[in-house]
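Dear colleague,

Following up on Tuesday's group meeting, I ran the structure prediction for the four-component complex that the binding team flagged. I've pasted the input sequences exactly as they went in, so you can double-check that nothing got truncated or mislabelled along the way. The C-alpha cells for the whole assembly follow below. Feel free to forward this to whoever is handling the docking comparison.

Inputs:
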Amino acid sequence: MSSKNIETRTRILDSTVRMLEEHGGRGVRMGDIAKETGISRQAVYLHFASRTELLVAATRHLDEILDLDSRLAPSRAATTGIERLALYIDHWGRYIPDIYGVAKALLLARDTDDAAATAWNDRMQAMRDGCRAAIELLHSDGDLATEWTPQTATDALWTMLLVPNWENLTQECGWSTPQYVDWMTTVAKRTFIGGPD
Amino acid sequence: MSSKNIETRTRILDSTVRMLEEHGGRGVRMGDIAKETGISRQAVYLHFASRTELLVAATRHLDEILDLDSRLAPSRAATTGIERLALYIDHWGRYIPDIYGVAKALLLARDTDDAAATAWNDRMQAMRDGCRAAIELLHSDGDLATEWTPQTATDALWTMLLVPNWENLTQECGWSTPQYVDWMTTVAKRTFIGGPD
DNA sequence: AACGCTGCTTGACACAGTGTCAATTGACGA
DNA sequence: TCGTCAATTGACACTGTGTCAAGCAGCGTT
C-alpha cells in the first residue's frame, strides 16, 4: 500500500491505455503490458486479478485523464431538448475516438469473459441514461415526434450511437469525426423531432 | 469422394447450423459439433480444414436452405427506389433473425482469425451492394435528399442495417422483428428521401 | 481369399494465452 | 538484525485449436 505500490499500479494503467490506443485494442497481451511497464508479467497480477479487471480499471483511468465529467457539462447544461440532443451527440462523437482502443479491448474481452460483458453493459447503460435524458427533455418540450414514446426513442437513439456504428463509418467508410457527428445529428433531428403538426 | 463422404459433410453442416442457432453462436466448439454429428472431433477436420472454414461453409449451407435468392427477388423486382429501399430493409430485417446464430459465430471468430474477418467482410460487402442498388435507384428517380451523394447515402444505410443494431434493439431492448423493420423503414425514408424542394 | 482403398477412430502432442503457485531476492524501516 | 513488502523467476494447470501417426472396418477387385 506504499506510494511505490500505487505508482506501479498507475504506470501499468498508463502503459495499458497507451498500448491499447496504439493497437486499436487488439492483440495486447498481459506480457506485452508488463514488458511495456518494465516489470514482470506476474507483477501485473499483483495489482490486477485478471485481464478484465485491468481493462475495466484502464477505462476508469482514461475517463479521469480525459476529464469525462467536464466533457459532459455542456450537454447537461442545455435548456432545451433539441439543444441537449445535439450537444450529447457531439460529446459522444468526440469521446469515442479518444477511448476507442480501450473500449474495443473490453468489447472483445466480452466475448469470452462474463465480467467484461457486465462491465461493458454498465457503461452502455450509462450512455443510455444520457440518451434518455435528452429524449425526456425533448418530450417535455413537446418536440418529440408523435410516433415515439420516450422509451422507444431512447432505445433507438441509444442504438444509433453504439460504437460499432462509429467504427463502421470511420474505419470502413473513411468518414471523419465531424462528418460522423454531422450525420448523426441530422438523422437524430429528422427522426425524433416532430413538426408542429 | 463417395456419397458417404458427402453425406457426412452435410450432416456436419446441419448440426453446426443447428447448434449455432441454439446457442446464439457462442461457445460451440469443434468437439461439440463432432459429438452432435456422432463422429470424432478429428473426422470434422477431414471435411473442413479449420473452424473458420466450417463456419463459412455453414453460412453458405444455410443460405441454400433458406433460399436466399428467392428471398431477395421482391426487392430486386422493385421498379421505384422508394419501393426497393423498403423491400430491401424488409428482406434484411427478416433474414437476420434466421442467420443470427451462424452470423454471430463468424462475427466472434473474426476477432482472432483473419480468414473469418475476410469472410465476414465479403458478406458485408454484398449487403452493401444491396444498399447501393436501392440508393442508386432512389437517386435516378430524383428522390434522394439533396444533402446526400449516392456514396455517402450508401455508407449510411449500410451502417444502419448492420447486425449489431438489430442485435441491440431485439436482444437488449426487446423489440420484435416487425418493430425493428418498421423503425428502420421510417428512419430510412425520413433520412434519405428528399421532399419536392 | 488376399489386396487395396476409403472413411473414420484413437490417442498423443504442439501451441497460445491466461491465471496460479512457491521459492527467492533486494530494499527499506524499526 | 529482523520483518515486511514489492517484485522476480520458473514451473505448471487449463482450454481450445489444429496436427500427426497408427490402426481398423467395410467394400469392391481380381
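Chain A has two domains: 3-64, 67-192.

Cheers,
M.
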